[in-house]
C-alpha cells in the first residue's frame, strides 16, 4: 500500500514538472521569434539607410560632392 502512494505522488510531480517545462519551452520559443523579428527589422532598416546613402552619393555627383553639399546645407551657406 505504501508503494502505491509513493508512485502516485511521483507521477503527479512528474506531470507538473512536464507542464512547467512545456510552458518554459513555449516562452523560450516566443522570445526567439521576437528576437528574430527585431533582428530582421533592424537589418531591413540598415539596408534602407545604406540605399539612401548610396542614392545621395549618386545624386550628389560623388562622395566628395556629397560631403561638400552636406556641410553647405547644415551650415546654411
In summary, what is this structure?
The protein has 77 residues and is mainly α.
Shape: rod-shaped
- How far apart are the first and last residues' alpha carbons, in Å? 95 Å
pLDDT average, as an integer? 79
Radius of gyration: 30 Å
Number of domains: 1
Order of helices and strands: HH
Treating each run of at least 4 consecutive H or I residues as one helix, how many helices? 2
- In percent, how helical is the residue content? over 70%
Strand proportion, as a percent range, falls in: under 5%
Largest sheet: none
Report low-confidence residues grouped into runs of 5 or more. Answer: none
The total count of strands amounts to 0
Q: How would you classify the helix and strand content by structural class?
A: mainly alpha
Amino acid at each position: 500500500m505504501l508503494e502505491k502512494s509513493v508512485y502516485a505522488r511521483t507521477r503527479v510531480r512528474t506531470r507538473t514538472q512536464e507542464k512547467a517545462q512545456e510552458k518554459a519551452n513555449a516562452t523560450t520559443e516566443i522570445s526567439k521569434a521576437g528576437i528574430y523579428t527585431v533582428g530582421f527589422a533592424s537589418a531591413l532598416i540598415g539596408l534602407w539607410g545604406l540605399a539612401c546613402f548610396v542614392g545621395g552619393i549618386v545624386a550628389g555627383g560623388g562622395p566628395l560632392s556629397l560631403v561638400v553639399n552636406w556641410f553647405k546645407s547644415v551650415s546654411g551657406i
